[in-house]
Write a structure and sequence with these properties.
Elements: E1 11-16, H1 21-35, E2 39-46, H2 59-77, E3 81-87, H3 96-110, E4 114-118, E5 124-125, E6 129-130, H4 133-146, E7 167-171, E8 178-181, H5 186-194, H6 205-223, E9 228-235
Parallel strand pairs: 1-2, 1-4, 2-3, 4-7
Antiparallel strand pairs: 5-6, 7-9, 8-9
Helix pairs in contact: 1-5, 2-5, 3-4, 5-6
Length: about 240
């Protein structure tokens, strides 16, 4: 039987690679927690400056546009803050130590009881998609930051007092074992995704909305609710 994750974390931190990744992966959960009173923060590791197939794109201009889009979407989701690390798109696999240090500092400063990040073990989705290297790299960096680095005072002592994260939820996983009911927040997820206009084709409107609703409805059927997002849960410490 499917397990619903029904807790509302006091403080949640979502760690993702690109400006729209968290909306795609867990925007419904983030919006639902924020609406229920959680302090929700998002880390975006790269600028998304390579997120275009148009060779005439100016990367710095695209990065600035995407930063504005992510802040606009944050208002719809109800996020407390968005933390932009500013690394180049496609570079995260070359900076594991730097990423881990940055994330340890954020975890110790924000003190989340729950962290959401991509499942770095999910490399292939069927026979038509290879998971982006940045998605895998940020997933490993987030996991390495919370277990054990942020909780151990001898790792990066200059980054502040140690903090133990209680729960990690891995998104984009091939092995979901808990689901978050997003029936009341799926429309916020849709609206937030529409903020990322630099990533949308002119005719994306109804198609994207229908796709998101269908995807969360499919997960909802697995969980016994109208709409859901699935995760793989890792228990590290006290519950949320």
């Amino acid at each position: 039987m499917a397990t619903l994750f029904t807790d509302t974390p006091a403080v949640a931190l979502a760690v993702f690679a690109h400006p729209d990744d968290h909306e795609v992966s867990c925007g419904g959960a983030l919006a639902g927690w924020a609406a229920a009173g959680a302090e929700v923060h998002v880390v975006v590791a790269t600028t998304g400056d390579k997120g275009s197939m148009d060779p005439s794109t100016v990367p710095d201009e695209l990065a600035a546009r995407r930063a504005a889009e992510v802040h606009e979407a944050a208002g719809i989701l109800g996020l407390r803050d968005v933390h932009l690390l500013g690394h180049p798109d496609g570079s995260l696999d070359d900076m594991a130590s730097e990423l881990r240090r940055s994330l340890v500092g954020l975890v110790r400063r924000l003190r989340p009881v729950l962290v959401v990040c991509p499942d770095p073990t999910a490399a292939f989705f069927g026979d038509a998609y290879v998971n982006h290297v940045d998605h895998r790299a940020i997933g490993w960096a987030a996991l390495d930051a919370v277990a054990p680095a942020a909780a151990s005072p001898l790792y990066f002592p200059e980054e502040g007092p140690a903090h133990q994260v209680g729960t990690v939820l891995l998104s984009g996983t091939l092995e979901p074992d808990v689901w978050v009911d997003v029936s009341g927040s799926v429309e916020a997820k849709v609206r937030a995704l529409f903020c990322h206009r630099s990533q949308l084709a002119p005719d994306a409107g109804s198609w994207l909305a229908d796709f998101v609703r269908q995807r969360t409805e499919d997960e909802g059927q697995r969980a016994g609710v109208a709409h859901a997002e699935g995760f793989r849960r890792i228990r590290l410490g006290r519950s949320v």
